[in-house]
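Sample entry was shown:

___
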Amino acid sequence: MKKILLVLTVVLLWNALPMLAQEKSTKAESIYRRSSLHTILLETGDFLNKEMVMNSYNQAPFPDKYNDHKLPGSVFRFEDYITLTPEEKAALNDTVAAVSDDKSKDSKREKMQTQAIETYLQRNKIANQMVAKWFSRDANGAFKMDMIHERGSYDATEMAAQMAQKGIRGLASLKDAGEELISNTFIVVNKMNFVENEPIARAVKEAAYLAATQISNSMARMATEKSADILYNSTKDGYSVWTISYLYQLNWNEDIANTFYMNMWMDSTSLDPARKILFDTTTMFTMKYVGFAKAKSVILVSLGKETQAIIQQATIRNIDKVYTKLQKEFDVFKTKTPIYSTDPAVMAKIGLKEGVEPGDKFEVLEMVWDKKTQTTKYAQVGVVKAEKGMIWDNRYNMGVETGDKEEEAGNTKIDGTHFKGGGKNIMAGMLLRQIK
C-alpha cells in the first residue's frame, strides 16, 4: 500500500506554472489549466427543419475555452429515458411555453427533462466514464496519468529530477490536482428547437387582449391592445432557433479521491480483477446538477436557397449564447482566458462569441504557490474593463445575414478584445475571469 501511495504521489507531482513576463506568446494560451467539458444532445421529438438544425449542431466547433472531454455516444432520445402522462407530454411540447419567460412552466419542463437526463447519466454510468477518461483507463482496467500531465502543464523531466533529489511535495499534490482539474469537469446537455415566430407572437397578443378585457378604463384598455399589436407586428416574422442547456458537474472531493486511489487504482504492472470490478460497479461517481439556461437566435429573412447556411450560422451562434449565459449565471462554470498581449493595450482572445460587452469587468489573476496549503491558488492582481469599439467579433460566420436585430455589432479588424485599466503589474500569461 505504501508503494502505491508513493507512486501516486510522485506521478501527481506539480510544478507551479512560471509567470514570466511575455509581451506576446502563443504558449500563454495553451499552458493554463482549463475546465473539461463533455456535451450531449437531448432529442425530444420532431420540429420544423429538424434535420438542418441537427446537422448545424453537429458542425458547431467545440468550445475552445474548455478541454475536450467528450465520450462516445453523445446523443439520446428523451422518450427512451422517461414515461410521461398525456398532460406532461403536452406541456413539454408546448412551443409557446418553451420559448416564454413563464417561470412556472420553465420549472415543470426543467423537472421533466432533468429527470430524463439523470436517468440517462445513471443508467449509462457517465460519471464513471468521465473519471475513466481522466486516467486513460484501458480495457484491462489499468490507469495512466498522461491526461493529468498534459492538462496540468506537468513537466515529467522536472518531476524525475525532483524524485532523485527527494523534492516531492507530498500528498497535497493530490488535492491540488483534484481541485484544479478533475473537480472542474462538466457536462452540458443541449436541447434544440426551431419554431415559426408568428404562432408564438399571436399567442402573446391574444393573451394580452384577454388581459385587457379585465381593464375597466377604456383608454387604458385600448392602449394595452395597441401595445400588443405593436409587439405582434415586430415579432411575428421569421423563425427562431432555441437552445435549452442543462449544466452538470462531476462530484470529486477528497473522500472520493482517497477511495479511488486506495481501492480502485492500478496500472499495467499491477492488474487486479477485483479492483476492475469495483470501479465498474461503484455508484460513488456522480454528476451534480448545477442549473440551466436558454437562448434564442432570430431569423427574420425568408427561407430560400441559403436556408442551410442561415440556419447553421444562427444555430451555432445560439449555442455560443447559451454557453455564455451558463458562464454568467454559474460562477463554477466561468472560464479563464490568458492575456495575450499588453502592448499597446491588454488584449485577450475573447469577444462577442463569449458575450463580452463594453464595460464588462474582468479580474486579472496570477497563479501562485501557497506555502501554507502546499497547493497552487489564484491571486487577483488587478481589474480591467472591455473597451468600447474594441470588442472582437469572433462569432461563427458563414457570410450570410440572419436579420437578427438582437445581435451586437463587433470589430472584425482586430484579433482580440482590448481592455482598459489593470495597472503596471499586468503581464501576458496572466488570466482574465469575468466578474459581475
